[in-house]
Predict the 3D structure of the following.
Amino acid sequence: MKIAVLGGTGHIGIGLSLRLAIAGYEVIVGSRKGEKARQKAEEYTSMLESRGLNGVISGADNAKASELSDVAILAIPYSHVYKAAESLKEDLAGKIVITPVVPMEKKSRLFIYAPPPEGSAAEKIASILKDSRVVSAFQTVPAERFANLDERFEWDVPVCSDDDEAKRIVLEIVNSIDGLRGLDAGPLAASRLVEGLTPLLINISIRNKVKDLSVKFV
Amino acid sequence: MKIAVLGGTGHIGIGLSLRLAIAGYEVIVGSRKGEKARQKAEEYTSMLESRGLNGVISGADNAKASELSDVAILAIPYSHVYKAAESLKEDLAGKIVITPVVPMEKKSRLFIYAPPPEGSAAEKIASILKDSRVVSAFQTVPAERFANLDERFEWDVPVCSDDDEAKRIVLEIVNSIDGLRGLDAGPLAASRLVEGLTPLLINISIRNKVKDLSVKFV
Ligand SMILES: C[C@@H](OP(=O)(O)OC[C@@H](O)[C@@H](O)[C@@H](O)Cn1c2nc(=O)[nH]c(=O)c-2cc2ccc(O)cc21)C(=O)N[C@@H](CCC(=O)N[C@@H](CCC(=O)O)C(=O)O)C(=O)O
Ligand SMILES: C[C@@H](OP(=O)(O)OC[C@@H](O)[C@@H](O)[C@@H](O)Cn1c2nc(=O)[nH]c(=O)c-2cc2ccc(O)cc21)C(=O)N[C@@H](CCC(=O)N[C@@H](CCC(=O)O)C(=O)O)C(=O)O
Ligand SMILES: NC(=O)c1ccc[n+]([C@@H]2O[C@H](COP(=O)([O-])OP(=O)(O)OC[C@H]3O[C@@H](n4cnc5c(N)ncnc54)[C@H](OP(=O)(O)O)[C@@H]3O)[C@@H](O)[C@H]2O)c1
Ligand SMILES: NC(=O)c1ccc[n+]([C@@H]2O[C@H](COP(=O)([O-])OP(=O)(O)OC[C@H]3O[C@@H](n4cnc5c(N)ncnc54)[C@H](OP(=O)(O)O)[C@@H]3O)[C@@H](O)[C@H]2O)c1
């Protein structure tokens, strides 16, 4: 299975690319610039090789990466992701599209959840990508610890979708990553509850001096 | 320190009353009916005695319990709590008031967060109890497991308030209960993020066949 990580050059994109490659998926790093994507893909491959790990990682511009993929992850900041989705609409038709997007604002020291009128980033993305199978996941995975291959964690990842088969496939992808447990969190309308968890995690991190928290349901 | 559990006759009220008494607080079970409260207080005391545990638990109507207390917990359903707070306003003046309240609606199999226009139950309660020191806590603690004294758990409890000293006191109260860890989650405006976590927990419980989930930040 080919997974494109669009914006895979960024913070959460690194961890996703590395760990999905380790899990055995064929990863395509996407970027606005094909050349930057290919560079990053080489970098990530070297990072795996230096640990004696194998992984198939290539790079392409976001449109090409989308077209080549079975599953694409929108690892792009919320302030840009809607426009990006609009422009990739055709390339993503028929594909499973995962959104890890969290619309957040910071007011003084407080992070607040700032969803669009559709109710959540996931629902807005689904309204743009009408021909894709949109699934929401990975919002509560902290980028820095996730990218660090020395890090050990046991995190739960809620997964939401209106497409049950796509949700099942994404749950499998999540569970294939060592240390993550995917949990069915309901339809896409429930994504707002998951997205809202992220500012809470960050607020708690800041105030209790523990960096990069995630969540476990116990 | 005297803690009144208003609506302490109900689901979450039992666990709070038992466990706060075990932690050494003087507990006053509150009810709309003084007689029902005294009955429940006796019942809870017997439950502790049958396990060889000590605890000081008395009962009174909600107004009297509020008046006698240093700290009061509003363990009343969201559909009734605002009116109840209105009528207890005078009795609760100057007190620390804890809200565990979660405004939720169920649409077919999906629980959704249904906050009032103020942004959260906590903010609405603070707007009613202008002379009290409102703190938000306990929203994610599942009543049934919490009331079962055989249950072992390790749960995190986010605590929000605009009153830093009141928040510190409530964090101490939370931490005094075996198995709970209190975490500063920011001002009252952050309570919506905590309240919203509860329908997520319930949705995940239902869909993954694990009863009464709570949360741990890791
Ligand atoms: C990591 C980097 O900070 P940064 O680049 O600002 O990144 C901060 C966050 O964006 C980063 O932690 C993200 O992972 C937060 N984050 C998310 N951030 C997002 O933007 N979007 C997300 O969807 C998201 C999800 C998420 C999930 C879980 C989680 O735990 C964190 C999550 C850094 O090195 N920070 C320094 C300090 C940088 C800094 O801002 N310092 C403050 C002072 C900090 C202080 O008071 O101690 C300042 O300069 O004023 C540090 O933490 O030591
Ligand atoms: C526990 C009792 O169910 P109940 O009285 O309806 O209570 C259900 C919930 O209200 C109860 O679980 C609450 O603790 C849920 N809950 C909260 N409930 C609230 O109303 N408010 C809260 O703030 C709240 C917080 C909370 C936090 C964490 C958490 O894990 C749960 C939380 C029970 O015995 N249920 C039976 C079944 C009852 C039932 O509704 N059955 C369904 C079928 C269920 C199925 O399909 O299996 C039916 O009759 O249609 C069971 O679970 O086996
Ligand atoms: N950071 C976290 O801890 C974390 C955790 C969970 C989820 N998330 C979510 O994941 C997404 C990405 O977050 P991030 O922290 O990884 O972001 P980031 O590092 O700031 O950006 C990711 C990538 O987005 C691309 N990008 C930037 N501006 C763009 C634009 N105008 N149009 C298209 N692409 C653009 C860039 O790639 P190119 O320059 O190569 O095109 C960049 O490398 C966000 O929606 C966030 O909410 C983040
Ligand atoms: N259930 C949970 O798992 C859970 C977990 C965390 C937080 N919470 C929150 O805790 C609060 C209580 O939940 P619960 O499940 O314990 O509720 P509950 O058992 O249904 O009710 C609690 C008590 O509220 C009182 N009450 C009922 N109607 C009232 C009214 N009109 N006016 C004043 N008091 C009234 C009753 O006491 P009297 O008849 O004795 O007056 C009742 O015993 C809710 O806001 C809920 O969101 C619940």
